[in-house]
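task queued by scheduler; priority normal; single chain, no ligands, no partner chains; default sampling; output format set to structure tokens
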Amino acid sequence: MKSIIASVVLMMSVAASASSGDLIFVEGHQKGQVADSTSFVGIYNVCYVGNPYAVQTKMRRWLVEDIEKNNTFIKVDKKNKQIIFGYVATKCLDDSLDATPEGCRQWVNIPPCKG
């Protein structure tokens, strides 16, 4: 119970200090921290705070420099209040001679942070 309360307090404090739109890690070694690139997005779950369109814009800028993700797709799903993020993992393509972009495509749903 104490860990749940601590997690909620941490998420609320991070959300309060976040800018108009940020991604927050909800697991992994960066749990509770604001994401500053897409390098761990998709490996670890994230949620967003603020304006989802601001997050979408930030992610597009980050993807220009992310060589591990190709054929990216980012969309704000207004109906379900989430950001849909898709990419082809270059590591997947490199690891197998018969890998295809379709087989290496990853989809990530980014919900709003609760709290």
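post-processing summary
- Strands lie at 21-25, 46-50, 69-77, 82-89, 105-110.
- Confidence is low (pLDDT under 50) at residues 2-11, 13-18.
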